[in-house]
Design brief:
It is built from nine helices and two strands. It has about 180 residues and is mainly α. Strands 1-2 form a two-stranded antiparallel ribbon.
Length: about 180
């Protein structure tokens, strides 16, 4: 192998990390088109000048089996062999491929834009029951402990009388009088 070359095993490790990314059922032996595009993007194989997302999609379609929706590591290597000369113009195929490998080795899927945990101060402020107003205030006692069902629900009146009826409980008396 050439000087400064990268072992295929190292590339395969990165391949597996990207292959299972975002897919709980993935084994790491095959990679779908979305993750192939992601590895190309995260490892800067896509540079938007020489290699675009379209190029990556075309190469992916070219190397995969006709009916398949995934590529194996061998096909992945084929795809890189196709993309390498485009990415590193003026280099020999081998040199270009080594440089592409160099970009990939040691990389893991970057979770760019993944939701961060909210800052604790904001959560504390929003969950401080002593600052609640209106109907929500009724649901907590002074210590900030929830009152449970008593504080939350209008307990239904199942006496059989219409709400706010002042003469409730007087029916039996009226029947006796008659």
């Amino acid at each position: 192998m050439a000087e400064g070359s990268v072992s295929v095993a190292e590339v395969q490790t990165s391949f597996q990390k990207f292959a299972v990314h975002g897919d709980t059922k993935a084994t790491g032996k095959e990679m779908n088109g979305k993750n192939f595009a992601k590895i190309c993007k995260d490892c800067h194989i896509i540079d938007s000048k020489n290699v675009t997302t379209t190029d990556v999609d075309i190469v992916f379609s070219k190397v995969k089996a006709k009916s398949a929706r995934v590529i194996t590591f061998e096909q992945f290597n084929q795809a890189l062999t196709e993309l390498a000369p485009k990415r590193f113009k003026g280099k020999s195929k081998e040199e270009a491929l080594q440089q592409v490998y160099g970009l990939i080795v040691g990389k893991e899927p970057a979770n760019v834009g993944v939701t961060k945990v909210a800052k604790a101060a904001a959560v504390d402020r929003l969950t401080d029951a002593s600052k609640y107003t209106g109907a929500h205030k009724e649901r907590f006692d002074e210590s900030g402990k929830g009152k449970g069902k008593a504080g939350r629900e209008d307990i239904p009146d199942t006496s059989g009388y219409v709400a706010a009826y002042k003469g409730s409980g007087t029916y039996d008396d009226k029947v006796k009088e008659a």
